[in-house]
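User: Can you predict the 3D structure for this chain?
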Amino acid sequence: MTILKKSPASTASQHVVLFGSSRSKFGNYGLSKQELDYVHDQFAKTEKKAVAVNQLSRYVIVQLIELKKQKYDTLEACRKAGSAVCGILNDQKIIEVTILDLDNKPAETLAFVEGMALGNYQFIKYKTDKKKESNSLTVININSRNISPKQIERLQISVDATSEARTLVNEPVIFLTATQLGKEFQRLGKEAGFSVEVFNKAKIESLKMGGLLAVNSGSPDP
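Assistant: Here is the predicted structure, written as structure tokens:
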């Protein structure tokens, strides 16, 4: 599970992603002149939108917002960028990172974080060495003056719900029978605070839900 939080004020000693444009003042966040020159040189000579700087005690990743003609295309580009940066952070075994919204772009920043969190999803339940296979990234802090705790909470719910859906899809049918699916929804209901009623075969027959019964007739499980 990836935890999303409102960032603390100070980021001097944290791994950070500087999320902005080519006009953002990246030098205000702990990059030396030599490091800034390297970042600008990489952007000028390559098609990169993200450059990582290893400062030994922390990683600083400079991420440019890729603006598109349509807003939704820009947001989707931000999600893809977030997923790519997530890979960099896991490669470096980083556990916690702070996203700094330098240009006051709350929608783009939330999309970037969404891409990171969804890119961090794994289905490793049946792996032999789950600890070795697990991504290191656990916490994403968000530092943006126009993103509220409520917005972060809603994004957390969306990410968690998507991850739950992915896990149900990824489960093999030998585990996720109709009966087990009912149990999974009861578990989700208990965790989220809503009630779940699971119909047994007799109840389904009494309601004349023939289509559902016909599909299930191909299964050895009721």
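The CA atoms of residues 41 and 136 lie 30 Å apart. The two ends are 32 Å apart (CA to CA).
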